[in-house]
Design goal:
The complex is a heterodimer of chains A (191) and B (253). Chain A is built from nine helices and no strands. Chain A is mainly alpha-helical and 191 residues long. Chain B is of the alpha+beta class. In chain B, β3 and β4 (190-198) form a beta hairpin. In chain B, α4 (60-76) runs antiparallel to α5 (82-107). The radius of gyration of chain B is 28 Å and the shape is elongated. Chain B starts with a helix and ends with a helix. The relative contact order of chain B is 0.09. Classes of the chains: A mainly alpha (191), B alpha+beta (253). Chains A and B meet through α1, α2, α3, α6 and α7 of A and α1, α3, α4 and α5 of B.
């Protein structure tokens, strides 16, 4: 896809200070998005930090191949590639889900409404429990607010596949949430 | 528009991916298709639910780790003197620590974790910075008075050269919202950051040394002060450092 196909070999030269300075201006503002995406991929805040850091450093090495345009999809694609590499390296061991679900129940919730925070916990747990192909596409669309074109870039898929996968992911999550959330008491219209 | 077409368009419509013409056609079709109206409502609800998940911004520690790497990379690209090379080696060592720290921060919980996080970030500043201390001196009579007026207590300051830990100086840090004194010691190529503040409980508590991902933390109470030491020393060395501190404190009384 466009600029992304120009990713050079990993042995790119050490970037000079002016490249680092430009990288700081263009890419660093997207660190929250990088970390957020890494969190949903890894489902673990600590692994997410390592992933985000490795991705940012790889992005810096490849930065000379960035031809302008949208920085966020470009970065998120690198996050995903690094994650795949890490999984290959570590034998793809995902966190057991019960641990994730119990953690989703921890932590203060900014909103006082118990109903709303209960609902958010269920939604977060439902999203975390989805298979990764569904999880990542929903995060990119609904949380990162990327267009189909950008999602296609990040996931390296044709737009048609983005659309069908997104529809399937929404259906699956809706079905899961119907199971998790009783309809009453959550102020939800039908899912 | 028949229902399968309409159904296929729901997602694209919700996502704002339809052209103006297609959107208009879809809206028209919706009027006669209650199933697709329900489907649209469900897709919108789903989007709303996912968007209300609390954002999880990048932790400060991650930001600091990346900043440090960027600084190091920018600097290694410059021609460097042997002296500088040594400094960057030290910085690389502290990066290893920083990575360990991420793990540490996530594996502890609550108050203690935050304190440990703060202490270890403080140590990383000491280990990686060119200006590790605010007052550089091996003379306790220079370091101790420097703290006066900067914090609301007077920390015991000792040069531990005799025990193998020469004093490098002191600095201020913030732990748990309180300004605290940090003494920096050197041991061969390692630095030890000793953070201390007046204890709220009485009596001494023996040093407890824990090791996490390649660096050592010691936690103890002695002579009316809470002591926290962080370093990339081996745990056994960390224990002797703590003993050396305690002996110096006792000798002073």
């Amino acid at each position: 896809m466009g600029g992304m196909s120009e990713v050079p070999k990993p042995d790119a030269a050490t970037p000079d200070p002016s490249t680092v300075a430009r990288f700081r201006t263009v890419m660093l503002p997207h660190l929250d998005a990088v970390y957020g995406f890494a969190r949903w991929l890894t489902r673990d805040p600590v692994a997410a930090q390592d992933l985000a850091q490795e991705a940012m450093l790889r992005a810096l090495r490849y930065f000379h191949a960035f031809r302008g345009g949208e920085a966020r999809p470009w970065l998120l694609r690198i996050v995903r590639n690094v994650w795949h590499d890490q999984r290959t390296r570590n034998g793809a061991t995902d966190q057991p889900l019960d641990e994730i679900e119990s953690r989703a129940a921890d932590g203060p919730d900014p909103e006082q409404s118990a109903v709303a925070s209960d609902r958010r916990r269920h939604v977060a747990a439902g999203l975390a429990a989805l298979p990764v192909e569904m999880r990542e596409i929903l995060v990119l669309r609904e949380i990162e607010d990327l267009s189909y074109k950008h999602i296609a870039t990040v996931l390296d898929l044709p737009i048609g596949t983005v659309m069908s996968r997104l529809a399937r992911a929404r259906e699956k999550l809706a079905a899961d949430l119907r199971g998790r959330l009783g309809r009453r008491g959550h102020g939800l219209p039908d899912l | 528009m028949d229902c399968p077409t309409c159904e296929a368009m729901v997602d694209a419509y919700v996502d704002g991916e339809l052209s103006a013409t297609d959107s208009a056609a879809f809206e028209l079709a919706l009027e006669t298709c209650p199933d697709c109206r329900r489907r649209l409502e469900a897709a919108r609800t789903m989007g709303g639910l996912l968007r209300e998940l609390p954002a999880d911004p990048a932790p400060d520690l991650l930001r600091a780790r990346i900043e440090r790497e960027l600084r190091a990379i920018a600097a290694t690209a410059q021609p460097k003197s042997p002296r500088e090379r040594i400094r960057w080696t030290a910085m690389a060592a502290s990066l290893v620590l920083a990575i360990g720290l991420g793990w540490l921060g996530g594996s502890l919980s609550g108050q203690g974790a935050r304190e440990t996080d703060e202490l270890v970030s403080g140590y990383l500043r000491v280990a990686s910075s060119e200006r590790a201390v605010d007052v550089a001196s091996s003379d306790r009579h220079t370091v101790k008075p420097w703290f006066a007026g900067r914090i609301d207590y007077s920390p015991p300051v000792h040069d531990l050269t005799a025990g193998g830990y020469p004093l490098e100086g002191g600095r201020l840090d913030i732990v748990d919202g309180r300004k605290v004194s940090v003494l920096v010691y050197r041991h061969n190529q390692h630095r030890v950051a000793l953070t201390l503040w007046p204890a709220s409980s009485t009596g001494n508590a023996a040093p407890k040394v824990t090791q996490r991902s390649g660096f050592a933390l010691a936690e103890w109470r002695h002579g009316g002060f809470e002591m926290r030491a962080v370093s990339d020393l081996a745990p056994a060395e960390m224990a002797s450092f703590a003993t050396a501190v305690d002996q110096a404190v006792d000798a002073d009384r």
